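Researcher: Structure prediction, please.
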Amino acid sequence: LFEWCVLFMDDENPNVQVASLEAMLPCEDVDVEMIYDLTENNDKRLRGAAVAVMAKHDQENASDWFRYGLTDPETHVRIQTARQLECLDPKEHQQIFDLARFDTNPKIAECAQKLIEGKGFAKVTW
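Model: Predicted structure follows.
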């Protein structure tokens, strides 16, 4: 599936590129080197999809990609990254989950909160 998705990355339509990146998420073998440059793209949709792919598939640098995505100024990128949090162990990556659960966007905070329920994290109160 990954090779098929890569074929569409050359398309000039950003919608096609984003769809291609999103289709890579469930893939088994992803060549993250092919995605890396898109993580700094000016288009928040492309950047968000690329960071999500990197966070999920670049096992050696996953924490860095989650941190990068969850601190992006664009809410869209942070949401795309937060959707991949289920790939991480909340106890092992508490700082990453804290970034998400204290995000100013309630959807991101809610996503993280659902994944840490019953795992010993202090309740967020305002």
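Model: The helical segments are 2-7, 14-24, 44-57, 62-70, 75-82, 94-101, 106-116.
Researcher: Thanks, that helps.
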